[in-house]
TrEMBL record, chain A:
Pfam families reported in the protein's UniProt record: SufE (PF02657)
Record family assignment: Belongs to the SufE family.
Domain Fe-S metabolism associated: 12-131
Protein name stated in the entry: Cysteine desulfuration protein SufE
Lineage: Bacteria, Pseudomonadati, Bacteroidota, Flavobacteriia, Flavobacteriales
Annotated PANTHER family: SUFE-LIKE PROTEIN 2, CHLOROPLASTIC (PTHR43597:SF5), SULFUR ACCEPTOR PROTEIN CSDE (PTHR43597)
From TrEMBL, chain B:
Protein name: Cysteine desulfurase
Named cofactor requirement(s): pyridoxal 5'-phosphate
The protein's Enzyme Commission number: 2.8.1.7
Catalytic activity: (sulfur carrier)-H + L-cysteine = (sulfur carrier)-SH + L-alanine
Swiss-Prot/TrEMBL GO biological process terms: cysteine metabolic process
Organism: Salegentibacter flavus
Zinc recorded as keyword: no
GO MF annotation list: cysteine desulfurase activity; pyridoxal phosphate binding
Keywords: Pyridoxal phosphate, Transferase
Residue span, Aminotransferase class V domain: 32-400
The keyword Transferase is annotated on this UniProt entry: yes
Amino acid sequence: MSNIKEIQEEIVDEFAMFDDWMQRYEYMIELGRNLPLIDEKYKIDENLIKGCQSKVWVHAELEGDKLVFTADSDAIITKGIVAILIRAFSNQHPADIIEADTKFIDDIGLKEHLSPTRANGLVSMIKQLKMYAVAYQTQLN
Amino acid sequence: MSLTTEHIAFDIEKIRKDFPILKRKINGYPLVYLDNAATSQTPQQVIDVIVDYYSNYNANIHRGVHSLSQEATEKYENARISLQKHFNAEKSYEIIFTSGTTHGINLIASGFTSLLQEGDEILVSALEHHSNIVPWQMLCEKTGAVLKVIPMNEEGTLIYSAFEEMVSDKTKIVFLNHVSNALGTINPIKDIIDKAHSHGAAVLIDGAQAAPHIKADVQALDVDFYVVSAHKMCGPTGVGMLYGKEEWLKKLPPYQGGGEMIATVSFEKTTYADLPHKFEAGTPNICGGIAFGAAVDYMNSIGFENIAAYEQELLEYATGKLLEIEGMKIYGTSKEKTAVISFNIEGLHPYDIGTLLDKMGIAVRTGHHCAQPIMDFYKIPGTVRASFSFYNTKEEVDRFVEGVKKAKMMLS
């Protein structure tokens, strides 16, 4: 099982294969379609991260000593980025999730989506993933 | 050589040169700016006025004995006269400078607090910007008045017969927009004003979305209050206008206390200044007001009839092209509408379409456009809204339509 850093590098390498934004977005949309969907029963308001325009639901569950995330969004591009974040952070130790940075998003040319001025809720989503990690880390201790 | 504004032909190439921002590239593509209903762009003529103000006569107004202050005061008052002429107000002091439409609405809603009683009714239309409903809800909470909503139909047009049934002698104020920001629908405000007046109710019109396209004549409309923002009419942000009939402005109490709005002050009693200063407490946005005047003059030099005719042409052209796209649904199909197209494509989220258009250098608005009640009516999370201005071109419409097609292909 790769660690967060290795997965992030892997994602950066994949995106490096594309020459232009259209191909990058097409790939991201593809990733969005394959996102491990959240169980319908978790698609409730309590799991909703409110962005201004697209909705994002996230559910976290501990499996052994690892934290597993599932998520969904009503907008496909948002879903693509959610898929990328989940791939990097899911199935990892909470302590590692707390430590991890998100610089790789810049490296794959999607920086604009993580700007706090962007109305898509992704900044809040990262915060939420980390908060889950903090909560479950406390539980593990 | 004298220039007569009404005979200048509509020269789109020349007009575009007035707007430096239109030369920008976004994400490597020439900018196609179709978010004019949110903020219009600023012509060089207005930018020059702003630079001139700060370079040559920046000073506080109305109270200085020195030359700069007098110069600034004169320019500021001239801007008021430009607005008076443009909106055909009878008196220049019926024009109050505000920080924008929202300020104007709050000023009126707050002023009515002392004029309303429990059981009085306030009518607002279902097409309102949702933030503009809030001041009336607050007014109702304070006074015990009742807020009633004039419904709209599937086309996004107000149901006039419903309004006729709702309005009564209990109605004290009717508030609606001249043009809907989310759909572009032009409301039949003249009929509504006349009907409301027959019951003794005052009418406040939010003209923010109409002002860039339609020259409203406040005397012909016989409207009691009309509010607009400069930043939708080629002017700067943070400044706007409230027109109010003299009799009403005299009746309403001041909105804020401060400098300019007072005549005499002692600890026992303060007498308020005359109009318009009664409603212009503190140092106003002097540069903004002057630039607003320049913006209105600029638009008049092009001519509102020319603007309206050209924009209608763009609207028809864009509507026709968009409707060729499979799954296209346009919201707001009233015959009377400004150059705004609010739409969705079946199965696609407006946010995704807007994001991809931005990658292609095309600026549109996506979301609920602060008109949540309208989105609830259509049972949708939001729309993509393209809003056109007189400096847009058919070539830009083509690029926009191609962009939408490309986005659809990528997302489907």
